[in-house]
Specification:
The structure holds three protein chains of three kinds. Chain A is mainly alpha-helical. Chain A has helices spanning 18-38, 42-67, 76-95, 105-124, 129-149, 151-154, 178-200, 203-213, 215-219, 225-251, 261-274, 281-299, 303-317, 321-334, 342-371, 391-436; strands at residues 160-161, 253-254, 378-381, 384-387. Chain A has two domains: 6-301, ABC transporter involved in vitamin B12 uptake, BtuC, CATH 1.10.3470; 335-436. Chain A is built from 16 helices and four strands. In chain A, the strands form two sheets. A two-stranded antiparallel sheet of chain A has the order 1-2. A two-stranded antiparallel ribbon of chain A has the order 3-4. In chain A, α2 crosses α12 (281-299). Chain A starts with 17 loop residues before the first helix and ends with a helix. Chain B has a domain at 1-79 and 212-256: Rossmann fold (3-Layer(aba) Sandwich), CATH 3.40.50. Chain B is of the alpha/beta class. Chain B has helices spanning 43-51, 73-78, 96-104, 122-134, 150-163, 180-193, 206-212, 230-235, 237-244, 247-253, and strands spanning 5-14, 17-27, 32-36, 58-63, 66-67, 81-83, 168-172, 198-202, 215-220, 223-228. A two-stranded antiparallel ribbon of chain C has the order 1-2. By secondary structure, chain C is mainly alpha-helical. The chains are: A mainly alpha, B alpha/beta, C mainly alpha. Chains in contact: A-B, A-C.
Chain lengths: 437, 256, 323
């Protein structure tokens, strides 16, 4: 949980020893290769492919947000335009007017993303901070509005569709079957992740961090911050374009929704929830994004409302996202103090559940009355049936929610106190170890 | 004779108010100059003008003979001038090592490279290690800058300032907020790390000034009313009147 | 020849009046946004959501009690919500920097959208102009100018005049002005600066809510209205220069004029060339762009403005403070 001590996570980036590094990347490759063997259904493989797409785009977004401190509300412009260009390329391949193996279409998307990032980035990075965010919003709206005006490129309301079985196929691989497309996306995912990770360890990557922390100082060590941000913008656009192109291949249709503000919001939301301060946070975010969309939306119609509440909560209390929470707790565990917290965590969990139960009953009832009213007043929720107009239930769930919230707040204060003490203990332990060495 | 830093009739207005009113100053290479003056005299503004943060209303700054008119801060820095800040201006979420390395990447020619790994830049890493030792923070290599003590952060600030090997260093109230003992140690550090460089520092602590500077420039209401050796400035009547107060007060503040 | 002159004059006058009323509405929204930004350094992403809330509250209150009570109650409700948000949510992230502040107001916008959809549904609601304000005020060259548009303009000017008076002539206004640039000093003098922040945020929200009460029935009241007007007012404040009320005023009118006029112009570069006896065929390169009517690109006018300003004057028309 965030507190004044949260910034004292020891290491900004994970720097395992060399063997560890090979191990992690090897494990990553192994997971990518074996995943479809575990999830053999077509649906499962579709979900995996979608995760790959969103992870690439979220990682590219995190170059801006987490590394550069640049909050963009219009990232879907670059992934979306990558999608459109990729789709047109695909159609050109089908028509025979362009020779390119389908497996290289993502690169075309990447180049498109790069081109448009170079074009729009040139004016966007003239500002920083809040104006920058507003300009990305404005350009996002501009492109989205243009997508409705130029049906030639954007396909109008129907969008642009295509067939990914196009051109010549080698070794009988057409990328028609989902599993083949999955492995293509997994390949690009691995390469892109590796490249973007490498980027964080280059001079430009580090200076980008410095620009995030203190742009004024960076000028005084010889760097043109505008230029730094411009290059980073283009790198992010490139990888976003690759992700967008794979999306075009996967869905075989691209519409104006792909460049919409709503889409940009999705990337922003999940990159932040995953954790912008750590590289792998965007990976977590990408996975959660697809899982939430596929599974959570089945669970309850109000899932966007819950998402909004979760987002608000995380911004206030856990701005490092899930990755930040994991890392902070790992650090505590490394010093052996984690077991001191289990009572607190349990209390927090229970009170949160109580509050959530009360709130969700009310939300579900409102949803039912609002949208399913024609079906009658009864609704099923959590394997219970109750009448949505029953005042007792309203009162009960409201009471439950408020009590849960009150108790949660109490537990949270207690938790913060314990957390603070543990942080101090860790600091002392570090000093003790330093004195010995 | 060419000067390391020359200010010619420098003026700066903010709206209707004239803050800097025609400053003329010529600093030789390797000189250590302290700029003193009452609050509001415009010392920080002067620094901001020299380092390119503000553009002068009129007049010029020359660095090693080259005019600095219209140049952006990063251009001026690349020409060999570096500055520190009164309010600590470091990279809070980076470690001590990273802070210092960022300070010297450009000077070693790495520019906007993103196809080389930082870990492979031996010269940068070696020089950063050297710097860490110089500013005596080598035992805090991986500590995040935000977790350092105030004095350590000020030392890091100096470290970043000199990292790029600039020849003209501007230090804006380096010892602000420090205790007497911290100040003494810090002045020794400054002397060590700026050997052979041209140094301009804004200071309020007279003890520091008289112990560190070859020459003192007295800035009052945006004008330099005296620019001379410490002893000469001490006995300059104008300066006494404007700033140092009566001879008794001077002896109490007194230098080393 | 005489006839076309009158047609043009009619178009010009009506469009001008419409632009001013639209521009004033934009200014009502962007002024609240600018005040909050100048005071607290945070750009309230949820500002358009307060506009939406005002409209929906007014709809429900008007149905229950009537339009005129709604005119007072709805903005007050929205203001209370804004103040509550500042006190219990925004304040907590204030110390973390501008990005978290923007993110939390973004989260609020997201949440408010979902809540509005939950309570009032996903389609537009029938929020109507009250019958006493319905109808034409005067007729110019054959087109009617509605009473309600005049009412809108009057309300906007009244509101802005009173806010201006409040800030320049009352004690609380002086405190606000001082806290704008020197919050610590003001606090040291004994004023409760956090309470001032809460007041300003709540006040800005109330202004946006009032704009919603007035504009919601003139235009459409639906959950998508926040997303429709939000980007436009952000463009207004960036084009005008972040932190500048005069700039916001200028930009509001400018964008109001440009958008309103362009909606009515059905000419395109193609037709302009045609009038010069240059007829082009669909095979000509760029035909698609040339055949675009000005009215078709009306929606993107504000954003084109944005790009132009960024190229030629990144700080905005009258920009002062950077984000």
């Amino acid at each position: 949980m965030a507190s004044k001590h949260s910034s004292s996570s020891q290491v900004y980036k994970f720097e395992p020893i060399n063997v560890g590094r090979w191990l992690i990347w090897g494990l990553f490759a192994l997971v990518l290769i074996s995943a479809p063997l575990v999830f053999t259904s077509s649906l499962g493989q579709m979900i995996l492919t979608q995760m790959g797409i969103v992870i690439i785009i979220c990682l590219s977004y995190n170059i801006l947000l987490g590394q550069g401190g640049m909050l963009s509300f219009g990232h879907a412009v670059y992934s979306g335009l990558g999608s459109f260009v990729a789709m047109h390329t695909l159609n050109a391949i089908t028509a025979g007017s362009f020779l390119l193996p389908v497996s290289l279409v993502p690169l075309v998307g990447g180049l498109a993303g790069l081109f448009f990032a170079a074009l729009f980035g040139s004016v966007t990075v003239k500002t920083a901070g809040t104006p920058f965010a507003m300009i990305t919003l404005g350009i996002g709206e501009l492109i989205w509005a243009m997508s409705l005006i130029f049906p030639g490129f954007f396909g109008g309301e129907a969008g642009v569709s295509g067939n990914r079985i196009a051109g010549s196929s080698s070794f009988g691989i057409t990328f028609g079957p989902q599993i083949q497309l999955y492995y293509l996306s997994a390949f690009y995912l691995f390469i892109c992740t590796a490249l973007m990770f490498a980027f964080t360890r280059t001079p430009l990557g580090r200076i980008l961090n410095a620009v995030r922390d203190n742009p004024e100082r960076v000028e005084f060590v010889g760097y043109d911050t505008e230029r730094v941000r411009y290059i980073a913008f283009m790198v992010a656009g490139f990888f976003a374009g690759i992700g967008g192109a794979i999306a075009a291949l996967h869905f075989e249709i691209v519409t104006s929704e792909n460049v919409s503000g709503a889409r940009s919001t999705v990337y922003l939301l999940w990159t932040f929830l995953g954790g912008a301060t750590f590289f792998f946070g965007a990976i977590i975010g990408g996975v959660m994004a697809v899982l939430a969309f596929v599974m959570f939306s089945e669970l309850t119609k109000a899932w966007l409302l819950y998402l909004g509440l979760l987002f608000l909560f995380m911004v206030m209390y856990a701005p490092g996202g899930f990755a930040g929470l994991i890392m902070m707790n790992l650090r505590v565990a490394a010093f052996g103090f984690l077991r001191k917290l289990w009572v607190s965590y349990l209390a927090l969990g229970v009170t949160a559940m109580v509050a959530l139960l009360g709130a969700s009953v009310m939300i579900e009832m409102i949803y039912h009355l609002q949208f399913d009213g024609a079906l009658g007043d009864e609704l099923k929720f959590l394997s219970m049936t109750f009448n949505a107009k029953n005042f007792d239930i309203w009162f009960g769930s409201g009471f439950l929610m408020l009590t849960g919230l009150g108790l949660f707040e109490l537990c949270r204060k207690q938790f913060l106190q314990e957390w603070g003490e543990i942080q101090e203990d860790i600091e002392n332990e570090i000093k003790r170890r330093q004195a010995l060495s | 004779m060419s000067y390391a830093l020359e200010l010619k009739d420098l003026r700066k207005n903010f709206g209707q108010t004239e803050i800097i009113r025609g400053v003329n100053l010529a600093v030789k290479a390797g000189e250590r100059v302290a700029i003193i003056g009452p609050n509001g005299a415009g010392k920080s503004t002067l620094f901001n003008l020299i380092s390119g943060r503000f553009a002068p209303t009129s007049g010029d700054v020359f660095l090693n003979g080259t005019q600095l008119k219209g140049k952006k801060p990063f251009e001026i820095n690349r020409m060999g001038l570096s500055r520190s800040f009164q309010i600590t201006n470091i990279f809070p979420k980076l470690s001590v090592f990273e802070n210092l390395r960022c300070g010297l990447l450009w000077s070693l020619g790495y520019k906007y490279t993103f196809f080389k790994f930082l870990a492979d830049l031996d010269d940068a890493n070696a020089r950063t290690d050297e710097l860490m030792e110089m500013i005596k923070l080598d035992n805090k290599r991986d500590v995040l800058a935000v977790n350092l003590t105030y004095a350590e952060q000020r030392a890091l600030e100096i470290g970043i300032t000199i990292a790029g090997g600039a020849n003209v260093i501007l230090l804006d109230e380096p010892t602000a907020g420090m205790s007497k003992s911290e100040t003494t140690r810090f002045i020794r550090l400054i002397k060590e790390v700026t050997v052979g460089k041209t140094l301009l520092t804004v200071e309020h602590d007279m003890g520091v000034v008289f112990g560190l500077a070859d020459k003192i420039a007295v800035l009052v209401y945006g004008e330099v009313i005296a620019f001379d050796t410490p002893e000469a400035v001490r006995s300059n009547a104008l300066v006494q009147e404007a700033y140092l107060g009566s001879p008794d007060q001077q002896d109490q503040a007194g230098g080393h | 020849m005489c006839a076309s002159f009158f047609v043009i004059m009619e178009f010009f006058t009506i469009s001008l009046l419409n632009s001013i009323s639209y521009g004033l509405l934009l200014f009502m929204l962007s002024s609240g946004l600018t005040l909050i930004f100048s005071m607290m350094g945070v750009l309230n992403f949820a500002h358009a959501s307060f506009y939406m809330l005002g409209a929906f509250f007014a709809f429900t209150i008007a149905k229950l009690i009537g339009f005129w009570p709604a005119l007072i109650l709805a903005p007050v409700l929205v203001g209370l919500i804004g103040a509550g948000f500042e006190r219990y949510f925004l304040r907590k992230v204030h110390a973390l920097g501008h990005v978290p502040e923007l993110l939390i107001t973004f989260g609020l916008a997201f949440l408010l959208l979902e809540l509005v959809q939950l309570i009032w549904g996903r389609t537009s609601v029938d929020y109507r102009i009250p019958p006493e304000l319905d109808g034409p005020l005067f007729t110019v060259y054959g087109t009617q100018f509605p009473i309600y548009k005049a009412f809108m303009m009057m309300m906007a000017l009244l509101m802005l005049a009173s806010v201006g008076w409040l800030i320049k002539r009352t004690r609380i206004g002086l405190v606000i002005q001082a806290a704008l640039t020197h919050p610590e000093t003001v606090e040291a003098l004994g004023h409760n600066v956090p309470r001032v922040f809460m007041l300003v945020f709540g006040g800005g929200a109330a202004l946006a809510g009032l704009a919603g009460v007035i504009g919601g029935n003139a235009f459409v009241t639906e959950p998508g209205m926040a997303a429709a007007v939000g980007p436009v007012i952000f463009v207004v404040v960036v084009v005008g220069g972040l932190g500048s009320l005069a700039g916001a005023f200028l930009a509001s009118l400018l964008i109001g004029i440009v958008q309103t006029f362009s909606v009515g112009i059905d000419a395109s570069l193609l037709s302009a060339l045609a009038s010069m006896n240059m007829v082009l065929t669909p095979d000509t390169f760029g035909y698609q762009v040339l055949s675009l009517k000005v009215s078709q690109i009306a929606p993107i006018m504000p954003f084109l403005f944005l790009v132009l300003i960024l190229i030629f004057r990144p700080k905005g028309l009258m920009g002062k403070r950077e984000g």
